[in-house]
Amino acid sequence: MAAVAIIPARYQSSRFPGKPLAKDTGKYLVQYVYDNVLLAKKIDRVIVATDDERILRAVREFGGEVQMTRSDHVCGTDRIAEVAIDLDDEIIVNVQGDEPEIDPEQIDQLVGLLETDRECEMATLACPFENPADVMSASTTKVVLDQFGRALYFSKGVIPYPRDDGGKVHSAGKWLLHLGIYAYRRDFLLRYSSMPPTPLEMVEKLEQLRALENGVRIAVGIVDRAGIGVDTPEEYAAFVERVRAKESPQGQED
What is the pTM of this model? Predict the structure, then answer.
């Protein structure tokens, strides 16, 4: 199946304005994402979708493909849907623009889910939690699956609820952390972006619940670990340190 990856990238961010263009390593943050996605064997094409001329120029500067979109989109899904309208690819992958260390093999696994499960119109990834405190945190999204590896529900709350332990989590690996990467069948993506928000989506503030509430099957692949995203200047500084450590002579020897 033909698959294209679209990276939504906007300049404005409440916690880190101009994040895609951060360049302390000599390479744009969005460029790291773009280059890693290009390494995925099941991706035929990579497109950055933006509403900002500065990002447009930067992507063209490093030789990437980029398309301008409207500036009034409320989420990245709507932005990639605007680009997907003019594409013929059957599978559209939504890759977050703040995942500079994304694993290309995970992208291939994601595409493979839709290749093998024809009943699913959408796919995503999850990994076991490592820390019980992260399971309890409302800042992480949990997912529970049915016996066929499809999503039953997503929540910021602790699901499943450990009733016998009084709500306390002792073994984090029994819970699944949802990762914010998605693959869609193109026709479904176009329908999905036009669907009105649903009750559970509005309560949990989780867009993927719109699909479940409309009876859409979501395939979920399990991976070993989550990538390290960049949401804040502090997280970007840590990423820069990792890059420089790898590029140092000592790092290359290790």
Answer: 0.92
